[in-house]
Structure formats: structure tokens, C-alpha cells
Design brief:
The chain has about 375 residues and is an alpha/beta fold. The chain has 10 helices and 14 strands. It has a 6-stranded antiparallel sheet, covered by helices on one side. Helix 10 links the parallel strand 12 and strand 13. Helix 4 packs antiparallel against helix 5 and helix 9 runs parallel beside helix 10. The longest helix has about 35 residues. The chain is globular, with a radius of gyration of 22 Å. The protein binds adenosine-5'-triphosphate (ATP) and magnesium ion.
Length: about 375
């Protein structure tokens, strides 16, 4: 990753990009469903249960992973349907076109491996999707982010980092495995110093790489947030933790040395507490509401929603600037908590992103100000 150049230098294309056609088969509540789109923001409205979030979930399968509901492939198939589910998309990528297909493998319908085709060719695995599409989403399940513990915020941040650093996910899983093994060895009283040192080495090396990536992405988000030119509130972010504090005054090498020493010294203490006292698993994303200087956890529901929106919009902008992939932003049920002033500012910010942003809501009147600038689909009408 290199972040030294100004953001503008990385903008790959100013041409409109996004999904032009979506076809669902045996997917959730839809037996078959087709949607033809232009490249402006998309507003999906309709009563509860009509299938708005299902459509966002269908879009979320344009990137690797289990989609915005983190579902098992077997849950997604329309109940009662005998056929495997599948999704097909036509995308506009600047001047070019792209066709992506994904879904259950008809040859092994019980497999949890998602079959993916790009322009008709079967991909070796779904991770290739990240080269074509980048995506960020905000769902009502994320509303508790500032009230829950730091691990939820770390997961949120790490998901953002995956979009920039393809090695981040595997580093995290190696780190977490080493952490579990070290805790287990200590709990069992097995002070095999060779084994412990090996695990602590992984914690030091991977922990530093993870922290460096997180710090770079947060640093970039901060500069995107500072450079925005709209009136929607912009979150103040900082990454806090024992490694981050050490990195403020020491070089990476010094911090690695210190970490190695502390881990060795703290083995007894860590055995008693059952947890490792220092490392990348102790970091937290600290968010403050601008102007009021109030920690996000103490903010009102609408203020917290605004902070989340500000972070995901900045992430979408950063992804679109840093990667060559088609950027998409999915905002499920985000406007109901916002007052009129914040809604107006949100729409202004969304239009400035110049990307296909997908919005849902039960009440079409809340999106009135987007008339003429977005495409509206009333589901169940
Ligand atoms: N595998 C499935 N087979 C059939 N129906 C399903 C399946 N999974 C979910 N559904 C149904 O899909 C329907 C629509 O869900 P969805 O979450 O998209 O609604 P929504 O329009 O977002 O509603 P809300 O406004 O309440 O958020 C639900 O009624 C749900 O029961
Ligand atoms: Mg919904």
C-alpha cells in the first residue's frame, strides 16, 4: 500500500460506474426478479418485509464474502424452491461493460462455496470479485457499534481495511489463532518456552503489520473526512491501543522489541487473567462527534447514525480513489433517524460521491429531495 500521493491523483475514472441490470433467481423472497437501472443513486421503498434489504443483500454478493447478512448459502435459497439460487449483474465500468454471475453451485448444491463467473468464465474463487467491485455498507445491525465493546469496532475497521490490504484478513486469522494457542498453553501451565516464543513471534510480527495497516487506513479516512465539502457532520476518528501509543514515540522496530519483551514478562500475569495483555487485539476505534466534542457512545441515536454514515461515506470515497474497482455504497434504512437538516446534508453528501449509492426506507416522502437526482423503485406497489 502506498498512500503518499494526494487522493485526487488516484481517481481512476470520473465516468459513471455501477450496476445496470440485476437478476435474481430463487433468492430469499424472490422467485425471479429483474431490475434495470441507470448509474444514479437508487432508492428502494416499500412496506416492511417487501424485500428491500434482500435486494441490498443481492448487491452485497458483488464482493467476496458472505454478504451483508453474513448468511449461509443454504439459508438464502427461496424456501420451497428446488433450484439453487443465483444472481446475475450487468455493470458499467467507465467505458466498458462487465457481466458477473454468482450463486450456489448447481453441481454441489449443499456446498458453502459460492460459484462466481466473470464475463461468463468460471472464476477459481470468489476473491477475484474484489478486483472489480469495492463496497461499503451500513445496516441497522450496526447501530450499536459505539455502545458495544471494542471488538465490534475492530471488526468494523478491519472490514474496511480488507478493501485496501488483501493480506489483512489472513494476518488477522494467523494472529487470532496464535493468541488462542498462547492463552491455552498458559492456562494448561505448559511453559514450553520454544513453543511460546514461536507464538509470541507471530503475535509481534502479524500484530505490527495489522496495526500499521489499520493506522494507515484510519489516517487516510481522517484526511478524506477533513477534505469533504458538505454540511453533513464529519466524525473525528482516532485509533487507540497500547501499540498505537507506543508507535507515537517509538519506531516500529523498537515497538516490536518492546512487545516481545512484555509478552515474555507477562506470561504469569496472562495465565492468571486468561488473556494477553498487549497487542493488536486491544485496539479500539475512538469516534467523537464534531463541534460538540462528545464521545460517540454518549451521543444520541441520530447523532450516532450520522457518525456511522460519515465514516462509511468517507470509506466509500477512499476505496473509489485507491482501488480501480467500481465503488458501491449500500445504506439500509438510514434516513428514518435523521432530522430534516441532516437528511438534506446527507443527500448533498451522497450526490457529491458521484457513485451508485443504494438507499432503502419504508417512507418515500423522506427521499423527496433526491427526486430528479436518483432513481426510485416502489416495491410491492
Ligand atoms: N430464504 C428465504 N425464502 C423465502 N423468504 C425469505 C427467505 N429469507 C427471507 N425471506 C423473507 O423475505 C422477506 C423480505 O425481507 P427483507 O428483509 O428484504 O424486507 P424489507 O423490505 O427490508 O423489510 P423492513 O422494512 O422490515 O426492513 C421477509 O418477509 C422474509 O421472511
Ligand atoms: Mg429491511
Amino acid at each position: 500500500m502506498t498512500y503518499s500521493q494526494p487522493l485526487e491523483n488516484h481517481l481512476v475514472s470520473h465516468l459513471p460506474r455501477g450496476v445496470e441490470k440485476l437478476q435474481l433467481s430463487h433468492f430469499r423472497s424472490y422467485e425471479t426478479f429483474n431490475l434495470s437501472l441507470d448509474l444514479t443513486p437508487v432508492v428502494l421503498t416499500g412496506p416492511n418485509g417487501v424485500g428491500k434489504t434482500n435486494l441490498l443483500e443481492a448487491i452485497s454478493f458483488l464482493i467476496p464474502g458472505r454478504g451483508l447478512r453474513r448468511a449461509r448459502l443454504s439459508e438464502i435459497k427461496k424456501q420451497g424452491s428446488q433450484e439453487p439460487w443465483s444472481l446475475s449483474y450487468h455493470l458499467k465500468d467507465g467505458e466498458g461493460d462487465l457481466q458477473i454471475g454468482t450463486g450456489q453451485d448447481p453441481e454441489s448444491p449443499t456446498s458453502e462455496r459460492r460459484l462466481t463467473k466473470i464475463n461468463g468464465e468460471k472464476a477459481k474463487n470468489q476473491s477475484i470479485l474484489a478486483e472489480w467491485v469495492s463496497m461499503v455498507w451500513l445496516t441497522p445491525q450496526m447501530d450499536r457499534l459505539f455502545l458495544d465493546g471494542p471488538s465490534e469496532r475492530r471488526r468494523f475497521l478491519d472490514r474496511l481495511v480488507y478493501g485496501f490490504d488483501p493480506t489483512h484478513a489472513s494476518r488477522l486469522s494467523r494472529y487470532e489463532k496464535a493468541l488462542r494457542e498462547r492463552n491455552l498453553l498458559l492456562r494448561q501451565g505448559r511453559y514450553d518456552s520454544h513453543w511460546l516464543e514461536g507464538l509470541e513471534d507471530i503475535l509481534v510480527n502479524e500484530g505490527m503489520a495489522i496495526t500499521v495497516s489499520r493506522r494507515e487506513v484510519v489516517g487516510q479516512l481522517i484526511s478524506v473526512l477533513k477534505s469533504q465539502d458538505h454540511s453533513f457532520p464529519q466524525a473525528d476518528l482516532s485509533l487507540e491501543g497500547n501499540l498505537e501509543t507506543l508507535l507515537q514515540t517509538h519506531s516500529s522496530l523498537e515497538v516490536e522489541e518492546e512487545m516481545r519483551k512484555v509478552l515474555r514478562q507477562n506470561r504469569d500475569q496472562d495465565r492468571l487473567t486468561g488473556r494477553t495483555s498487549l497487542g493488536a487485539h486491544r485496539s479500539d476505534l475512538f469516534v467523537v462527534y464534531p463541534d460538540k466534542n462528545q464521545a460517540a457512545s454518549l451521543c444520541s441515536t441520530g447523532e450516532q447514525k450520522a457518525l456511522l454514515l460519515s465514516i462509511v461515506m468517507a470509506s466509500a470515497r477512499l476505496l473509489s480513489a485507491r482501488t480501480g474497482a467500481i465503488p458501491l455504497l449500500l445504506l439500509d434504512e438510514v434516513v428514518a433517524h435523521l432530522d430534516k437538516g441532516r437528511r438534506t446534508a446527507l443527500f448533498e453528501a451522497i450526490l457529491q460521491l458521484k457513485m451508485q449509492v443504494w438507499l432503502t426506507g419504508t417512507d418515500v416522502s423522506l427521499f423527496e429531495e433526491l427526486q430528479g437526482d436518483a432513481q426510485f423503485f416502489g416495491l410491492g406497489e
